[in-house]
């Protein structure tokens, strides 16, 4: 199997959404010579509980020079109503956090940014004029896995595959050992450690058609999720299953 471009970009920096060195502008280039914004992935996920659609997440992953910007909106039902929540995550080509911002329609917002050797979260509420601050003793390379945004799980899966897999003789060879990550869940104002492990190829029915996808398991001490990615389409996240919550997430 031939490596997709997205993996080529990731190998050098251990992050699957970083830009290929040949596409980066030279340091002495002027702003007008910047590389164009490139869309790496975009689309929407249907969120189903007990088979009933309850929400829609619309997302995009774009690349501007050496930074990646991951945007997401969560809406009720089929996604035609106004967004209930929005998130905006920006990271460098090396996987370092530049900023994370979250807002909700009912009021309130938060942001996370690196400060010295830790991450600083600022929380604003409609009832307070001054944001509350909470530091986390975590490096800037820590992953963001906020509530309700499944595109964050795709980014983490790409990061895991970049570290665990390599190309040998045209085939993708991956280690079976799990990878561990320290992650921040901003809406919960907490940090956790998660494990991701490659299970292997499985046949999955999506939209009435059977497809062979790559399964990963994402787990912590409190949850276990199953993720399926399409290795023939730049390892895009196609399906998520959360058995404990009777929840299924499917790419539209």
Q: Could you provide a short overview of the structure?
A:
The protein has one domain. 8% of the residues lie in helices and 53% in strands. It has two helices and 17 strands.
**What is the assembly state of the chains in this entry?**
single chain
Number of domains: 1
| Class of secondary structure makeup | mainly beta
**Total DSSP E strands:** 17
Element-level helix/strand string:
HEEEEEEEEEHEEEEEEEE
In whole angstroms, the N-to-C terminal distance is: 25 Å
Low-confidence stretches: 1-27
Q: What is the strand arrangement across the widest sheet?
A: 8-7-6-5-4-3-2-1-17-16-15-14-13-12-9
List keywords for this structure.
single chain, 252 residues, mainly beta
If you had to describe this structure to a student in words, what would you say it looks like?
The protein contains two helices and 17 strands. It has one domain. The longest helix has 14 residues, at 151-164. With 252 residues, it is mainly beta. It has helices at 5-11, 151-164, and strands spanning 38-49, 52-64, 67-76, 85-92, 97-104, 109-115, 118-124, 132-136, 143-144, 165-168, 171-174, 179-185, 190-206, 209-219, 224-230, 236-242, 247-251. Helix content is 8%, strand content 53%. Strands 8-7-6-5-4-3-2-1-17-16-15-14-13-12-9 form a 15-stranded mixed sheet, covered by helices on one side. Strands 10-11 form a two-stranded antiparallel ribbon.
